[in-house]
């Protein structure tokens, strides 16, 4: 049963992969937007920071879930 818990925790950590891809896409598009319209850089940067924070929070949730799976014995 411990092996299945480790596999479940490993799968939960895969949310970090999605968050990394999401943050890369957000910043890539932000750089494109600033390059096209430098006068809108203030709005673009603030929206980019918000998007990166939301993507990073999903990675933190995945990490917390994996730690809960590993260190909390369910039902005992």
Polypeptide structure, described:
This protein has 76 residues and is an all-alpha fold. It has a single domain (2-71), classed as F1FO ATP Synthase, CATH 1.20.20.10. Helices cover 86% and strands 0% of the residues. It has 3 helices and no strands. The model has no long low-confidence stretch (mean pLDDT 87).
Which characteristics define this entry?
single chain, 86% helix, 3 helices, F1FO ATP Synthase, mainly alpha, 76 residues
Mean pLDDT: 87
CATH class reads Mainly Alpha
In which range does the helix fraction lie?
over 70%
Q: How many strands, what sense, and barrel or not for the largest sheet?
A: none
Brief overview, please?
The protein is mainly alpha-helical and 76 residues long. 86% of the residues lie in helices and 0% in strands.
Which helices and strands appear, and what pairs or packs with what?
Blueprint: H1 2-13, H2 15-36, H3 41-71
């Amino acid at each position: 049963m411990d092996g299945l818990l480790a596999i479940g925790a490993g799968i939960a950590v895969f949310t970090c992969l999605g968050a990394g891809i999401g943050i890369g896409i957000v910043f890539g598009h932000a750089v494109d937007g600033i390059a096209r319209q430098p006068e809108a850089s203030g709005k673009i940067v603030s929206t980019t920071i918000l998007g990166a924070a939301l993507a990073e929070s999903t990675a933190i949730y995945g990490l917390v879930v994996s730690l809960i799976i590993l260190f909390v014995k369910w039902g005992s």
